[in-house]
Amino acid sequence: MTQLMTEDGIRCDGRKTDDLRNISIKVGVLKNADGSAYIEFGQNKILAGVFGPRDVHPKHMANQDTGILRCRYHMSPFSVTERKNPAPSRREIEISKVIKEALEPAVILKDFPRTVIDVFVEVLQADGGSRCAALDAAAVALADAGIPMRDLVSACAAGKVADRIVLDINNEEDQEGQADMPVAIMPNVGKVTLMQLDGVLTPEEYKSCLQTAIGGCKRVYEIQRKALMEKYFQTGEQ
Amino acid sequence: MTQLMTEDGIRCDGRKTDDLRNISIKVGVLKNADGSAYIEFGQNKILAGVFGPRDVHPKHMANQDTGILRCRYHMSPFSVTERKNPAPSRREIEISKVIKEALEPAVILKDFPRTVIDVFVEVLQADGGSRCAALDAAAVALADAGIPMRDLVSACAAGKVADRIVLDINNEEDQEGQADMPVAIMPNVGKVTLMQLDGVLTPEEYKSCLQTAIGGCKRVYEIQRKALMEKYFQTGEQ
Amino acid sequence: MTQLMTEDGIRCDGRKTDDLRNISIKVGVLKNADGSAYIEFGQNKILAGVFGPRDVHPKHMANQDTGILRCRYHMSPFSVTERKNPAPSRREIEISKVIKEALEPAVILKDFPRTVIDVFVEVLQADGGSRCAALDAAAVALADAGIPMRDLVSACAAGKVADRIVLDINNEEDQEGQADMPVAIMPNVGKVTLMQLDGVLTPEEYKSCLQTAIGGCKRVYEIQRKALMEKYFQTGEQ
Amino acid sequence: MESLIIDQLKRERIIELLKSGKRIDGRSLDEQRPLQIETGVIPKANGSARIKLGNTEVITGVKIQPDKPFPDLGDKGILICTAEILPLADPHVEPGPPTEDVIELARVVDRGIRETEMIDLHQLVLIEDKSVIGIFIDSSVIDADGNLFDACSYASVAALLSCTVPKYEVKDDIPSLVEGVTSKPPVTTLPISVTMARIGDYIIVDPTSEEEACMDARMTITTNSAGNICALQKGGSEGFTPEQLIQCSEIALQVGTKIRKQFEQLK
Amino acid sequence: MESLIIDQLKRERIIELLKSGKRIDGRSLDEQRPLQIETGVIPKANGSARIKLGNTEVITGVKIQPDKPFPDLGDKGILICTAEILPLADPHVEPGPPTEDVIELARVVDRGIRETEMIDLHQLVLIEDKSVIGIFIDSSVIDADGNLFDACSYASVAALLSCTVPKYEVKDDIPSLVEGVTSKPPVTTLPISVTMARIGDYIIVDPTSEEEACMDARMTITTNSAGNICALQKGGSEGFTPEQLIQCSEIALQVGTKIRKQFEQLK
Amino acid sequence: MESLIIDQLKRERIIELLKSGKRIDGRSLDEQRPLQIETGVIPKANGSARIKLGNTEVITGVKIQPDKPFPDLGDKGILICTAEILPLADPHVEPGPPTEDVIELARVVDRGIRETEMIDLHQLVLIEDKSVIGIFIDSSVIDADGNLFDACSYASVAALLSCTVPKYEVKDDIPSLVEGVTSKPPVTTLPISVTMARIGDYIIVDPTSEEEACMDARMTITTNSAGNICALQKGGSEGFTPEQLIQCSEIALQVGTKIRKQFEQLK
User: Which residues of chain A make contact with E107, given a CB cutoff of 8 A?
Assistant: First the structure.
């Protein structure tokens, strides 16, 4: 069993308790998708592609009053230690749902009745926090597709490791730590749109963990913004 | 191996050859269903719920000239000794079909063209004769839903155990006995609407078994009637 | 391991390198199908039935401008050494596709917009070259159904066994030989409409193998023609 | 709509004929269509048969291979009958997972053979609780003109009678084939299924598709060589009177005896 | 269309009431509906419970049987919670494979019990890495009127508390049942799930179907006997402010403590 | 309708250009699009590659783990190639079970690698008949612009070349990983697939989506390092003349030789 934290509060990957892992986001990486993004978030490597607004198939799923959002979170067979069966697992179906519900408050669907916006996320390599990373890429891909949005959505987990609240749980900390709390926010609107918790926290730790996660989300937001700026406003400068 | 009958003709659960197990039926046990019933028939514990007449989905299944009846017989994972996979087995699909065909002659479907009446049966605990008990509950639930019917449908099995024809086969008798013959009748119309046989009978035993089963069905009918009366005509008396 | 060829060039089933196995075709063997054929090709025993042109279900598959062709190649559970699961395997799905594409150039689909022609092939007993034999039967069944065709389609494999190019690979040669090349042609139009290769051939062997296979197809064509003639022009003579 | 009116006219015509004891194809009420049986049609299978019952046609193949016994049934071999209606057999059949009709068909055929104990499964044990012989009897309807129950049942029985059981030796719990040694399957009785349709007050044997389209209810009764009734399945959206059910059992025994003679010759 | 307008009118009416601290069924905002718990309702199961939460009704059965451990988890027994909404529970539910809503329901119920470590799985090992005890907790919603998360969770916890664990002995790596010897499951804590809905600025506990139809977002928080927060799931197409999330945790602890008393009596 | 007319106009324009030896993207008829290969892109996999063939882009990962051999193939390791088109790769692809097109794609990629015997599977046996090494090569198309056959094939070959095979020791029939010891896979030859489209009388190499939309037929030929032809698949709803088939084989050899050089550097 890995030692998850040294006495000096240094984590197994060398980070301090409130450090993010390395994050890089590239916008517009796919030709066919209407919008796309590629994120590396620690060891996570995730692609997001967006199509729409477009016609809904099957048609009976269409809504006369509003556009709908669909989301698929999928892991490549080679993304995890044991080869994964390509058919969607129950875990992937649940994550697809919580990601969709985290994005919905940000997307202005009322403007596109009878249409669908499809968000496809592919986890090429998985590390701790893949649902947050997926959400970060998906939000950027939606913006890249020109979908009208109230705000971006920025996600980051916090958790409890070796009795301390830490930011941005990695794979070892997720599996052997004490708690994992993925959180997503709309950073300007100030609302939490995804939140889950697995693990045991006292009420005080709960507050602290939530605060830590929200802090992380805000730093992720800056990275998302920068990636979008790079594509849309600085192409001349390079 | 269980001894299925004593020399005095007493069966493994203490009954005589022509005894029914204990049967109790409650009508209108569910809030959401249009009609419902709960039956305990020996160790069987079965819920039936009815919806309709209502619109058919998918639409191409609708019939312009008549309503249709659909039936699902399903066993809970905890209803049998070994945990059962919740996906419907071939056995459950066949029983759904024979139950539907046993109810169809009693339901006046012509009055509701383009609609469906859905009968859902859930076996919470299974004992011998679960398809008969399911049918008894389903017929009462249809009546409770206010569906126009020509007659009730009443079901009970007979069989052959230790070389004797007996009424209302239980689980041990079903598994180790010589024959099991589930039968359903429309008691006033006088028609047999479900009949199956597994096991070996001489032509004479066949007649006797059929007669015994029909006798059982008639006694079940009285219990069904009483249950419906209790709900619909005696609420004031209690 | 079988010795696949003697020093004198005699193959394991007694044939010379350019011998076909015994082939017999019967036309119009099914009552319900619009057209049908039964082929015995070596140890292959295959039925083909054709329905159509008829309405397309589901309707969204219909094409306003042309008829469509669908094809199902299916193996009976008892057709091979180990009992085969009746659900279609990936291999059967691929073969269904290549057979369909081999027949499409021959069928005049433009005449029947919004309709489908269904070709169902059942392999009752499988030997080497079952896809070619299936195609031979399917083409005859299409003709028997009165579907307008530019040409028949005739199929036969060639391959490499014991370093020699041989015609019409059987089961042992398929499994232990060096190469298998199924080919189908439209014999009068002169086009190759199915071709696959598994195994290693030099460029020269490739040419020779292709030529050998085409030669075989032409001999199969004569047998197909004769079978059709027997049904349609010689009924009076017998 | 049209088809409904035609169905109704056809039903009227059929009942009209039945009143004078006739059927549209000229048979009497309790007369089966001609039954042709050919065995050994799939040489690579351990047993096989192709049967024609009028225009209904079925091919059945038997595969025999070592298997693990079912839990709690370690003293018995495995016997499984399946049935499917090939899409080339009927313009209304579509490829895909089996419908409830096909599942019922397969299960009724299976029970007819299982409940008569046609094959003594105790003789198919290699090592108790560990290794047994499995017999898989797969039927494919290739042309459908009614009464698929009897057609699949006859083809399954004929294929079983025709089969040869390979010999297996067990070493280190792994069964291996002994080449060149086979035996006949341990047959104890001949189950014969007889399917009847009720149209109005008439019970007719071996209905065609046309008759099935206007029948009220269906009854399949399987009897064994000793003249016992061993399996039964009522189908269809109407019922039978108790008297009709007695009548059906008598017809099944009587017609079954005739058909069994055809199978006796296959043994 | 109509339903949308009615939904909107109903939402307006519900918010109007909430402004004065009331709900349409007369409850206060943090008041749960009455909870009835009955255990032992399925005698053939190893444990069972039927619970009513207002008009929502769930039956849960527990099956306990030997199993192989998961790879890399050879020192732990197996515990799996499932949930399904029976089609008789709700006119909008259709038979078929589970929808994403039902998958979420089952996984949230499962995590609530798993993450609190209610059952000490280390005590369910028969032979490390080879043979363990598996506990399957299957919940069926039989009448649906909102808050299926808590209803399934309560029924699962009650069924677990009521269950008796059979004893198994292992010989030659094969576990066999020791008749007549059972024990209570190794319970360490009582997980209590509390589900809340946000409607406008109001947080209400234990929403009915009617309230769920017009809620903005949903929050399920599970706490353990020590007053810790152990599992949480946000749902719905809107968000929460951080302050609301703190408020939710306080409500979950406070309401959970009340409900836990009802379960203490079952131990 | 519209699309059909546009397709036809496009086809006319493409044929017009082909007459003068040109293609709409400026390539000559036997010219492939630029091929970029990057390996090691998924560090957690045992091997991986990301390739771009024009605008078509594929990521392939290799997973290597112990497995049981296939029956009757106990002296060989396992090698399985799969392929899928991710829904983000193409607006026309929907999530769900693989279509017949995708199944064909995967099987053709698999056969190209299998039939050339690129990997010596005999070297992947741990204990004959009991335990072997399995190599799973999974390709995902992430951007689709035609010729997925070659793109998936190249990515699979590159990922295989880049992979390191972990060492396993077998104790008590259970293979366990030996940390820190790896080897290169036993590569014997380099299979190179070349896909051609026939449009009218012209054979063009490496068609784009636009060209595939108006092609008559497709041909994929895989050759090995020794200049032999090892696997071939004709596709599409029209045929080839025998002369065209000879021409195709010559093109496949010639273009394949060029491309193989790019792969030689990866060894």
Answer: 90-91, 94
Give D229→chain B minimum CA distance, Å.
5
**Closest F-chain CA to C109:** F237
Q: What is the pTM of this model?
A: 0.95
Parts of chain B with a pLDDT under 70: 1-2, 234-238
Q: Which residues of E72-100 are buried (b: 16+ CB within 10 A; e: fewer)?
A: eeeebbbbbbbbbbbbbbbbebeeeebee
Q: Which of D4, D14, D60 is nearest to D37 (CA)?
A: D60
Which of B98, B192, B211 shows the shortest C-beta gap to D240? B192
CATH number of the CATH domain containing A207: 3.30.230.70
For residue C138, the distance in angstroms to the closest alpha carbon of chain D comes to 12
**Closest Cα in chain F, distance from residue A205 (Å):** 33
ipTM above 0.90, yes or no: yes
Residue E60 domain-assigned (yes or no):
yes
Domain containing residue B178: 23-234
Q: Which two tokens stand for residue B56?
A: 């058919």
* Mean pLDDT, range D136-153, rounded to an integer: 98
Of F87, F88, F105, residue with least CA distance to F96: F87
State which residue of chain A sits closest to F54, comparing Cα positions: A31
- Give the residue ranges of DSSP H helices in chain B: 90-103, 130-144, 171-176, 203-233
Contact: C78, D88; criterion CB under 8 Å: no
In a domain, B8, yes or no: no
Asked whether the beta carbons of residue B211 and residue D245 sit closer than 8 angstroms, the reply is no
- By Cβ distance, the residue of F104, F249, F250 closest to C97 is F104
With beta carbons under 8 A apart, name residues in chain F contacting C83: none
Query: Any bridge partners for residue B77, and if so which?
Result: none
Does residue B176 sit within a domain? Answer: yes
Residue E236 lies in a domain: yes
> B225 — phi, psi (to 5°)?
-60, -45
**Is there a contact between F61 and A78 if contact means CB atoms under 8 Å apart?**
yes
Q: Do A90 and E107 touch (CB under 8 A)?
A: yes
Minimum-distance CB partner of D90 among C32, C80, C81: C32
- Asked whether the beta carbons of residue A49 and residue F44 sit closer than 8 angstroms, the reply is no
Contacts of C87 in chain F (CB under 8 A): none
Q: Considering only CB atoms, which chain D residues are within 8 Å of B206?
A: 229, 249
Give which of B192, B208, B217 to mutate to test D binding, by max D Cβ within 10 Å.
Answer: B192
* A58: confidence class by pLDDT, cuts 50, 70, 90: confident
Asked if residue A1 is part of any domain, the answer here is: no
Degrees (nearest 5) of the Cα angle D194, D200, D202? 45
The pLDDT value given to residue D3:
60
CATH number at residue D148: 3.30.230.70
Range of the domain at D249: 21-264
Of B63, B23, B95, E3, give the one whose Cα is nearest residue D103.
B95
Q: Is pLDDT at A209 greater than 60 in this prediction?
A: yes
Q: What is the DSSP letter of C2?
A: -
On whether residue A9 sits in a domain, the answer given is no
Q: Is E227 on the interface with A (CB under 8 A)?
A: yes
- The residues of A whose Cβ lies within 8 A of any Cβ of E are 64-65, 90-91, 93-94, 96-98, 101, 104-105, 181, 185-186, 189-203, 206-207, 210-211, 214
Q: Is F74 within the bounds of a domain? A: yes
CA pair distance C234, C217, nearest whole angstrom: 24
Phi first, then psi, for residue F40 (nearest 5°) are: 75, 20
Which residue has better confidence, B104 or A8? B104
Count up the domains in chain E and report the number.
1
Total domains in chain C come to 1
Residue F5 covered by a domain: no
Q: Which helix (H) or strand (E) holds C143?
A: helix C130-144
Indicate the average pLDDT of chain D. 94
Indicate whether C237 pLDDT > 50: no
